[in-house]
Amino acid sequence: MFEKQIKIPAAEEILAEQPLPESLRRIKAERDKLAKDVIAGRSDKLLVIVGPCSAHESKPVLEYVRRLGRLNERVRDKLVLVPRIYTNKPRTKGVGYKGMFSQPDPENKENILRGIHTIRELHLHAIEESGLSAADEMLYPENYAYVEDLLTYIAVGARSSENQMHRLVSSGIELPVGIKNPMGGSIPVLLNSIYAAQSPQVFKYRDYQVATQGNEYAHAVLRGMVDSYGNDIPNFHYETVMKVCEGYAHSNGELKNPAIIIDSNHSNSGKQFRQQIRIVEEILQNRLYDTDFKKIVKGFMIESFLVEGNQKHDIVFGQSITDPCLGWEDTERLILDIAEKA
User: Fold this and answer.
1) How do beta strands 232-233 and 225-226 pair?
2) Is residue 1 part of a domain?
3) Calpha distance 110→221 (Å, rounded)
4) Residue 50: which domain range?
5) Which residue of 18, 75, 116, 277 is 20 to 30 Å from 43, comparing CA positions?
């Protein structure tokens, strides 16, 4: 039984009500090109998707993004910084806080309509105040339409990478879509997901039968894996990365723009947030060691916020209420180090 609670307007209505101004549209178009050029190998910059595990409240996220915008001015010759403004939060058991899209106030009940307006306002202010357009996770494919004009990077999570609808919708997106390896870590499944996203597709999306041309910017994200006993197993090490590189090569050109982003947290770090620094440093060293490794590893995902660690309730300004994150000072040093060694 489905109890109807709030009627949600069509995405076209919401976008018309809260449009992206032309001045910000131009900024986003420039940012989109920077990100696509990295994935396609037209640029040797590194892509760094960095920010809080979950954007649970607008004010600290905006403060974080403003700082990131200032830092971007110092590293823009070497890096493309993309703030994480993740407004949907997957939960392992499917219950609990689901992100700003569903709960604009994490301490109150779900209000999806208010959540949609809240996240659009957040993204618009973020671009305006920092000059940076953001990344989000496409947890629910139909929800993407409500933010499709605002984002520069889309992530498909480990629990979603085997889902057919995520693959199909990714094929119609004209932006970099990072597809994470599934929780079990299968590289063939990951590469199959990328192949599906890069291929033309016909399917039902929202109220229409749609056709897509395929997304050549779909690529791999290595986030570690979980074994059958629940243990985190990292997959950022040289040997695993080169196995993915071999998988791309064995596709005989069917997979375009070979690219890997390393997720430095999640099962790669065992959610030990400070380990992200060590993981990034190891990747940077391996890029110096092997030209093939350097060519295919295009950047990092880093979980970071104003205050390190996490909290159960929103008490400390700028501290995660979901997974623990690096604090700003460590983040700034790490990004400057990446730029120096890129």
Assistant:
1) antiparallel
2) no
3) 30
4) 11-341
5) 277
